[in-house]
Amino acid sequence: MSGEGQGDIVDELLSSVLGGESGSEAEIAKEQALVRVRVERRRRHLVTVIEFDSSDVKALDIDGIAKELKRRLAAGGTVRENSIEVQGDQRQRVKKLLVEMGFREENILIDETITET
């Protein structure tokens, strides 16, 4: 038995367990994902909610997307299930940034109304 072959298998298993899916899987998931962007008013404050609807949500790395959006928008936010919440009305900026991240513009739907919660 060769030590090299076992090392390759171990590396593949570690990357799959640690969420290191191949870049092509993540890109395909981004291109196929349907994204809905809406704004809610919560206690007099506006919150932008970005919902992801995809057959393979785990491949999207929502935590990484949220981190990048918060950094680029200079706004606080959080991840809840399959959605990201960002402080303020950021609809148009979020759409632009998601397109830059590899999401298809046709699959990003923006709700122009503000929902009261």
TrEMBL record:
Record has Protein biosynthesis as a keyword: yes
Domain SUI1: 33-102
Pfam families the UniProt entry points to: SUI1
GO MF, one example: translation initiation factor activity
One GO process term, biological-process aspect: regulation of translation
PROSITE patterns: SUI1
Keywords tagged on the record: Initiation factor, Protein biosynthesis, Translation regulation
Protein name stated in the entry: Translation initiation factor
Organism: Vulcanisaeta souniana JCM 11219
Taxonomic lineage of the native organism: Archaea, Thermoproteota, Thermoprotei, Thermoproteales, Thermoproteaceae
